[in-house]
Amino acid sequence: MNRKTFFALFSRDVHVARRNLVATLLQTMLQPLMFVFVFGQVLTRTGMMSASYKGILLPGIIAISMTMTGVQAVAMPLIAEFQFTREIEDRLLAPIRIEWLAIEKILSGTLQALVSGAVVALPARWLLGSGLGISTEHLGLVLLIAVLVALFSSAGGLTLGCSVGQTQIGLMFSIILAPMMMFGCVYYPWAALASFPVLQKAVLINPLVYASEGLRGTLAPQYPHMSTGVIIAVLSLMDAALVLAGLQRFEKKSVS
């Protein structure tokens, strides 16, 4: 690895992300915060949902914000660079191996996902009000799971960005991301799917399930959640698989 080139590319992506920070935050925070307001305020205040539901909702909202930010921060620029601006050709001429270009994209997306999760937590916490029952006893585990979640989202964004064509962007959201969000245990714990045993087992292929359950188990452990050890192990395996798949897809697309 050419460290000087690597950090120059990384610094450029961070600078671009900082310049577009407001637009990026609005794009990734608006929908989750609307869900927070409707489910956490409107439905609980009118008595249609229990007030305790707010504690179940917050970790899921953080998970979905991190996931969407990481995927979009890597996938959308890659699609543009490969098919519209052709900026990727300039990067490929840099004195650095191809795989390190992909790793730089992953690290940049991971950082943006972590920032998004931290930023969305504050207004979401304010909108939900008191009585959340959020615990701060396991901050080390919270940070570890947050890093694993951010890594899977950016690595997944790399894989999608190198696999989806410009005419398939809408398809990516409707076929892949929309079902992932709805069946990612964001708005309900995984245990709530016990009445649908086939679906409960099928959603286990969804990384967002482990992201939501992991943050729920560490931030609000009084609610039903998967084993934290199992979640860390599965997220680690998924991260490794997505990173390898993303690196292979990036190298193949770069030389084609």
* Element-by-element helix/strand order: HHHHHHHHHH
How far the N terminus sits from the C terminus, by CA atoms, comes to: 22 Å
Strand content: under 5%
Oligomer: single chain
Task: State the low-pLDDT regions, or none.
Answer: none
Radius of gyration (CA) equals: 19 Å
Helix percentage range:
over 70%
Report the mean per-residue pLDDT as an integer.
Answer: 84
Number of strands: 0
Most strands sheet:
none
What does this molecule look like?
With 256 residues, the chain is mostly helical. It has helices spanning 3-19, 21-45, 53-83, 88-92, 98-128, 139-161, 169-182, 197-202, 207-219, 228-255. The model has no long low-confidence stretch (mean pLDDT 84).
How would you summarize this macromolecular structure in one to three sentences?
Helices cover 75% and strands 0% of the residues. By secondary structure, the chain is mostly helical.
Helix and strand arrangement:
Elements: H1 3-19, H2 21-45, H3 53-83, H4 88-92, H5 98-128, H6 139-161, H7 169-182, H8 197-202, H9 207-219, H10 228-255
Helix pairs in contact: 1-5, 2-3, 2-5, 3-5, 3-6, 3-9, 5-6, 5-10, 6-9, 6-10, 9-10
Salient structural properties:
mainly alpha, about 260 residues
